[in-house]
Design goal:
The structure is a homodimer of 129-residue chains.
Chain A: E1 5-13, H1 23-37, E2 41-48, E3 54-60, E4 63-70, E5 75-83, H2 89-100, E6 104-112, H3 115-118, E7 126-128
Antiparallel strand pairs in A: 1-5, 1-6, 2-3, 3-4, 4-5, 6-7
Helix pairs in contact in A: 1-2
């Protein structure tokens, strides 16, 4: 059995601060990154926290994108989860890295639904970049 | 620096089929699991796919919960991501396992924003159950 989807977990540190509290920019980045990956946005939502921080989420025809920002610390947590063979979530991640301009970032990929996750071959279900 | 949040990735196989296409039940499970974890739901959304499958997402005051169901295959992909010290995402996961009744499941925990993810100590940023 193949995996049901590719879930990329993107961690970004020391991002460009002015983007992290700009809801319109984050909505635009989510939308553009979905397009870049070949995914279709079905619904998109966000919430602005007080005093700072934004959560943006898109339900995709192919799963979801979620972004949480910590503007004071400069940290951003991103999930790009796409199912099917017609999307490449790495392209969404590349666009988001360009948009947030982190000084440091890590991407983990989890093959969701893969039988590798069930057993002892856990390391094979992950890859890092 | 501590992690910003705990992200539990729950994989469930051979779930109870009638739940997987029941949007109301999934919304209720997301809401109850957030409460169980000590989290606050800010916004909640879902989408019903044709011919089957549901995506449900909740933006939490403490990050997010996302659920995707594959009713034909019996597979469900769940993410429970909570930040702060007052939530326990494992309690949400426990409730979701009770609700979906999988014959097989795996939980991975990723410490989001942890410096362990940056370096070579990747295995320490993960744990499985």
């Amino acid at each position: 059995m193949e995996a049901y989807g590719r879930h990329l977990i993107l961690e970004m540190w020391d991002c460009k601060r002015d983007v992290l509290n700009d809801a319109n920019k984050i909505i635009e980045l989510i939308s553009n990154s979905a397009n870049e990956a070949g995914a279709t946005v079905i619904k998109q939502f966000y919430h602005e926290f007080i005093p700072s921080g934004i959560t943006g989420v898109a339900i995709l025809a192919e799963s979801h994108i979620a972004i949480h920002t910590w503007p004071v610390e400069g940290y951003v947590a991103v999930d790009v989860f796409t199912c099917g063979r017609n999307c490449d979530p790495q392209l969404a991640v590349n666009l988001l890295i360009s948009g947030f301009e982190p000084k440091d970032h890590t991407t983990l990929e989890i093959k969701r639904g893969s039988p590798l996750i069930k057993g002892t071959l856990l390391s094979e279900a992950f890859s890092t970049a």
